[in-house]
Amino acid sequence: MTSTPPTAESEGGTVSGTWTGGLRRAWMSKLPPEKLLPDRQPAYVASWIYVFGVATLAAFLVILASGLVLAFAGPTWYHTSSLGLFTNSMHFWSVQLFFVFMVVHLWGKFWMAAWRGRRAMTWITGVVAFLASIGTAFTGYLVQTNFDSQWISFEAKDGLNAVGIGAFFNVANLGQMLLLHACLLPLVVGVIAVWHVLLVRRRGVVPPIDAMDTAVSTAPPVADAVPEARP
Amino acid sequence: MGIRYLAGVSDPATYLSWGWLSISVPNLIVIVVLIVLFVLAIVLPFPKGRDES
Fold it and tell me: Is the ipTM of this structure higher than 0.95?
């Protein structure tokens, strides 16, 4: 029979001064489980315009999965076999959907002024994720290992040299672009996307502008003023 | 050899021009699809969820 050893906190005494305890308390105060994994959302979330954020995430998962298969199987496979061509196309078209969903999500949030209510960092991380995604997509065009990618890389080389940033990275270097596309940039997009989602969970989904005005004029918090519905 | 494409993927795109504005048909299609999707997302009713018991 085992028992949990008593801690300073459980004995009602002083708060533990360890960094793990501090991190846990900070996490629980800012993002308790009911905020991190909510089972209810305000009624205004029941609109198609609120779907495009999670649709972007779904497309991102398909991109990661198909990209992983392409990386393992290699160019000869995805240029010659029918399954390889299919997987290559799936990777390409999930990127197209990723950007379509993200642009509609961006437009929706822009017209909602989604940076209201201390959500500036949520907006900023979304913008950075968008920019990092563009870089990831552009390096993807460079690593197709075909004549198209050769043409694009040499056009890009001239363009980047013309604006004076060609010394920092060489778009005609396939190995360098492959590492950027398959390792660094997806990691950047993934980390920022997780940060973005955690901020959405912490601050809540932004209410419509008129709902915010109602909440302000009638005093009670938005969460109490707006009827709730299951997502 | 049996495979017919709607448009040749290696062919240059068709461009439309109005004065200073010049845009390829594929880019125009993408922009129109984005705008239509955005409008539909606002206008179309969302399915009702389960009621609270």
Answer: no
* Number of domains, chain B: 1
pTM of the model: 0.82
Q: Residues of chain A whose C-beta is under 8 A from some C-beta in B?
A: 46-49, 51-52, 100, 103-104, 107-108, 229-231
Say if B48 falls within a structural domain.
Answer: no
pLDDT digits 0-9 by tens, B35-45:
999 999 999 99
**Closest Cα of chain B to A86: distance in Å?**
15
Strands B15-18 and B21-24, how do they pair?
antiparallel
CATH for A118-207 (2.120.10.30, 1.20.120.450, 1.20.810.10, 3.40.50.2300): 1.20.810.10
| pLDDT tens per residue, range A87-106 | 999 999 999 999 999 999 99
CA distance A93 to A88: 9
